[in-house]
From TrEMBL:
Residues 118-408 form the Peptidase M14 domain. The lineage of its organism: Eukaryota, Metazoa, Ecdysozoa, Arthropoda, Hexapoda. Belongs to the peptidase M14 family. GO terms for cellular component: extracellular space. It is found in: Secreted. This is Peptidase M14 domain-containing protein. GO terms for biological process: proteolysis. Keywords: Carboxypeptidase, Disulfide bond, Hydrolase, Metal-binding, Metalloprotease, Protease, Secreted, Signal, Zinc. The keyword Zinc applies.
Amino acid sequence: MKLLTCGFLFALIFSIDSIEKARFDFYRVYEVKAENENQLKVFQQILDYPDGYRFLTNAPAVIGMKAQLIVPPHKFGEWSELVKNFFIDATLIDDNLQNSIDKEEARYLKRKAIDWNSFWRLNEIHSWLDELAASRPNDIRTFSVGTSYEGRDIKGVKINVGGGNSKPSVFFEANIHANEWIGSATATFIINELLTSNDTNVQRLLNYYDWWFLPVFNVDGYEYTWTVDRTWRKTRRVTSNPLCRGSDPNRNWDVNWGSYGGSNNPCSSGYYGDFVFSEPETRQLANFLNDRFTNLFGYISFHSFGRLLMTPYAYSTENSTHIQKLNEIGAKAVDEIATFRGASYTLGTISRFFGLVAGSSVDYVELNQKPTLTYCYELSTNHILPNDEIKATGQEIFASIKTIFSEAIDQGLA
């Protein structure tokens, strides 16, 4: 693979660089599974009133759903009682979260070049996008969705090889949740493969579509996961509760906002915001999409975890009007992932796996831009990954992306 390189008063006085990093020494991570209604109520209470607990993932909202839950040392006793009293299926997957974070950081510090053996800082991603655009100004340009709450550029890249305005457009959105680093890594991997592969099918795809990539949507949250708290999921806007910042940007869109699938507590990782589109990031991306795309062909959203390939909707048990083709092509994409290295992805609607969820980006785009192909990926099986998992995830997901958009051409959809 080639690589293309080309206290409030305290907050007012000191920059974020002076803030001490959150540590998670001896914090445990459990994989939990909801098996009955009583357990769902327990998990919703933890989401609404975390008191030291934190879901790394979406909280279980439907029977059968799995999630990852951080349990701090001072809650070990309480958690043990909850597991015993409610017969919770809980598997310990990390007995010292800080060790895993330290190993991840050590890999980054040892890196000698930008590659897909470790994750990238936000400034590295943005600089790389700038270098791509400078290296091929006729084919590649950067774009800005807008400015985040903390003043960062929400930057992406558009690839249009050969020019023309009539090509079908495909938009990739990644890292809407700040701690899901594998999303941006996968997005940049796909960009690199599209631009460097000698495979004739990849070159056909490169020339056939307009490719839009937003590798890091939640730029403030993403930077915060590097500088302060690796487990952070939300944005960083000040909420109605001055002690609790941020909202879940995938609960903040104008699709049955605030109805279900989130929390009305600003201190919760699932807080859906003070009002619909309260977050400047979600509001600006919605405006960007509405202003530029009257006939968007494809929309892809990258999340983690769970190894799922999902179709709309989240807010309803109804299916997309394109569900037959989504299932047909999605099944082929899932099969392609499995043949690559044996990873097993499951295909289905978002509501099937997560229950009803209001305010998601995928539903908003599906209802407003009405793409022919809309998919939401849940990548990998964890947030903190070994070196070889980052690149391998990129490879298998790119294989599925090739399948999806090749099928669209071959079937005359695009």
